[in-house]
Each structure stands twice: as structure tokens, then as C-alpha cells.
């Protein structure tokens, strides 16, 4: 069964990826989104639009041993800061959200690509090199 985890902020993201990437036979996907409020609404319009498509793609295409780590990158002001560690981290260099990546691979989708079922299917079905 697909497991979903949540990390809020950069330090939580780093701790979670270190722990989860050590799990054997699991495919780790990291999904970067804006911070959600108490009602679950995201300040990022694109993230809200992508959410139902992404959720359905997980059900339809993700392997049962997949781990989905949702990472909230902060509020709108934090995301806009050019010194935000999600922007400056040499492993990430995130420029837009939502962004979905297969951890430690070159496989990734950005922005409107995260709303396209066909691209999500391809990413979830791509094999390891």
C-alpha cells in the first residue's frame, strides 16, 4: 500500500528524506507544495489545482511500495524569499511549486506538468536506471 508522509519546512524535509530513502525496496517520491492552512487550503493556486489529479494518479499508478513525501515549503512570503533553502539547496534548486520528483533521480515534474495525468503516469511507471 502506498504510504504518505508530510514534512513541513526544510529541516523536516531533510530529516524525512534521510530516513525514508534508507528504506529498502521503496520508491520515494517527493512532492513540494505551498503551506496549507487549517482547512487544508493551499495558498498556491497551482498546488490546489494539481491536488485532485495528483491524488488520483497515486491511486491509479503508484506502486504499492511507493512512499509519497509531501513537503510544505512555507507560506507565500517564505517561498518568495530568494534565500529560501528550497531555492538555494544544490540538490533541489526549486523554482516552482508544485514539483514532484522521484528522489535521487532525474525524474521530475514542475508546475502545470503536475496536473497532467499522462505525465504523472509516466513518472510513476518509470523504472530505475
Automatic annotation (TrEMBL):
Gene Ontology molecular function, alphabetical: protein-disulfide reductase [NAD(P)H] activity
Domain Thioredoxin: 7-126
Pfam family, one: TXD17-like_Trx
Alphabetical list of InterPro entries matching this protein: Thioredoxin-like_sf, TXNDC17-like, TXNDC17_dom
Record-level GO cellular component terms: cytosol
Protein name according to UniProt: Thioredoxin domain-containing protein 17
Origin species: Glossina fuscipes
